Amino acid sequence: MGDGKDEHGYHLFPERDPRNPKHEPFLSRVYGLKIRCKARLKIAMDTSPHVKLLLAAMNQAGCTAYRDRHFACEECDEKVGGGFDSSTSEIVICQNNINDQTTMNRMLTHELIHAYDHCRAQVDFLSNIRHLACTEIRAASLSGDCSLGNEMSQFKFGVKRHHQTCVRDRAVRSIMAARKFSQETAEKAVDEVFDSCFNDREPFGRIPHNTAEANMAYKEFRNRGRYYANI
Ligand SMILES: [Zn+2]
């Protein structure tokens, strides 16, 4: 019968070992978060019009994103919700910081805009701060990061002013979080490219402020595709 140490096969299943109480809760917590993250990712890809439109646009641009290959649920620093790794074309989803479906949908939309920009424009996010500023402006504006209800300061500035002010601030903060640039350098880059990048609403064709507007944009995108296909 041996010395009793491995008779239950706990060496194969350390999470089930009652003699290992410190190890078990951490592992099962991480495992649970990963399962939930993957489930929310699937729901977003199946139901969010923002996400579905971006996936269709990526596909049309020749950069089809596959759920198993281009999306990874991982543990991250508590300050970040997700990221786009341009070297591997992977979107990282921070399973420990995404706590509901709405946050998942918005974060995925934000990162998919970076992936879309990377695909269509061969942008250089790593060394060109103006490229980085441009994609952060577009991601903040089109993802819903600055939509009504997501921030309260709209009452102070009015809806339109609020949206632009919020987009500018978020783009500056994202640049500073991603790279070691000073606030002054980040602000200068954002201001230089703001107008042209803010007005580039591809592939939505509009700022999709809510689900209804995103559904409309998705419908228009599909009709555009059908029109081209009929020529
Ligand atoms: Zn970003």
What is the global morphology? Answer: globular
Low-confidence stretches: 1-6
Number of helices: 9
Distance between the termini: 76 Å
Largest sheet: 3 strands, mixed
The number of E-state strands comes to 3
Mean pLDDT: 86
**How does the helix and strand content classify structurally?**
mainly alpha
Biggest sheet strand order reads 1-3-2
- Report the order of strands and helices: HHHEEEHHHHHH
Give the amount of beta strand, in percent. 5-15%
Helix content: 55-70%
List cofactors, ions and other ligands. Answer: zinc ion
Whole-angstrom Rg: 21 Å
Organism: Ranitomeya imitator (mimic poison frog)
EC number: 3.4.24.-
Pfam families: Peptidase_M76
Keywords: Hydrolase, Metal-binding, Metalloprotease, Protease
Describe this structure in words.
By secondary structure, the protein is mainly alpha-helical. 59% of the residues lie in helices and 6% in strands. It has a three-stranded mixed beta sheet with strand order 1-3-2. A hairpin with a 4-residue loop joins strand 2 and strand 3. The N terminus is likely disordered. Zinc ion binds next to helix 4 and helix 5. InterPro entries: Peptidase_M76_ATP23.
Summarize the structure.
The protein is mainly α and 231 residues long. It has helices spanning 23-47, 49-60, 67-70, 101-121, 129-142, 154-157, 159-178, 183-198, 211-230; strands at 71-74, 82-85, 90-94. Strands 1-3-2 form a 3-stranded mixed sheet.
